[in-house]
Backbone:
């Protein structure tokens, strides 16, 4: 409800500025996409209900990448989903697995031919999902890709890892940046 009022104010001000001749367009946005509501235990979060999640605690415990990815993973952007401490642990485990795999591959410098077919399918899937704002399914594709690389380490290549980091960067920028610099 809060965002709707801001949208209304913005449209009013933009139309007034157009009427006064300061700008030459009437609508402030070319496209509007509303995000869904994040709930807790099925109920809208509210200070008065005392069920608000303080993200600062989660940033300290899990890091910004984990919190950011979890918010994208809990459901489609337009629908969002229900906050769960168990869910954020799953994203944390995923990012930790990326870290461990990168450290292992850095040490062993694999020379396999890679998992090329899966790599290309993942690139296509993640690219399309990001363009369509389907962050949750993009993350799921990256999880599957990580499983594929981890399960076939003898066949994996450094290119497989590089592609994983590149695809992960828009969703969790800090971890891939650190691993890339290594």
Residues:
């Amino acid at each position: 409800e809060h965002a709707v009022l801001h949208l209304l104010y913005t449209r009013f001000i933009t139309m007034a500025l157009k009427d006064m001749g300061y700008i030459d367009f009437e609508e402030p946005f070319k496209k509007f996409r509303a995000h869904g509501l994040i709930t807790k235990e099925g109920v809208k979060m509210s200070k008065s209900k005392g069920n608000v999640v303080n993200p600062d605690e989660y940033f300290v415990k899990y890091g910004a990448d984990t919190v950011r990815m979890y918010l994208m993973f809990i459901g489609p952007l337009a629908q969002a989903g229900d906050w769960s401490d168990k869910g954020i642990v799953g994203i944390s485990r995923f990012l930790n697995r990326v870290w461990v795999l990168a450290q292992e591959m850095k040490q062993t410098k694999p020379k396999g031919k890679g998992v090329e077919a899966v790599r290309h399918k993942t690139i296509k899937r993640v690219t399309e999902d990001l363009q369509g704002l389907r962050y949750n399914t993009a993350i799921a594709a990256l999880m599957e890709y990580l499983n594929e690389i981890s399960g076939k380490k003898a066949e994996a290549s450094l290119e497989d890892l590089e592609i994983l980091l590149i695809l992960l960067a828009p969703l969790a920028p800090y971890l891939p940046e650190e691993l890339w610099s290594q």
About this structure: Strands lie at 39-40, 43-44, 82-83.
